[in-house]
Amino acid sequence: xxxxxxxxxxxxxxxxxxxxxxxxxxxxxxxxxxxxxxxxxxxxxxxxxxxxxxxxxxxxxxxxxxxxxxxxxxxxxxxxxxxxxxxxxxxxxxxxxxxxxxxxxxxxxxxxxxxxxxxxxxxxxxxxxxxxxxxxxxxxxxxxxxxxxxxxxxxxxxxxxxxxxxxxxxxxxxxxxxxxxxxxx
Length: 185
Known about the structure:
Blueprint: H1 3-9, H2 15-25, H3 31-58, H4 62-74, E1 79-80, H5 82-89, H6 93-105, E2 109-114, E3 117-125, H7 127-147, H8 153-173
Antiparallel strand pairs: 1-3, 2-3
């Protein structure tokens, strides 16, 4: 077995192990801060894997889910121009066109000319697309309920408020970090 495959089979160190290693190498580390940040990072990765598996079971990708979600958030009749979709998702127009082409081929969205402005294109959620979105939401709701089952209602409320405060701080410090960061690609 090669060193690369052996390394990929090693389990991720526990949080306590990770924090101890960080403290050994960087004495200025605040272990409480690192515990929170590392736990959030791991939770985010694991939740993304779980959501990805659920979407795959429905036959849609995470990128398709993002388009479906954006159209639903726009409200009925679930329509939007491709430029606005691209902007909201942090994509280039070319990447958005490719995504819309694929989704239209799968019957998740339609792409038609605007009746009032024949130059403008409108992307609209189909009944099949809405059905996929609803099923994904059902699966996510069950997963999320299971994830938070050990917390009381008060604890869920407090956790939600704390996470929103953290999110606001990041959004204030990094106002451009809501979409895809082209400087990190």
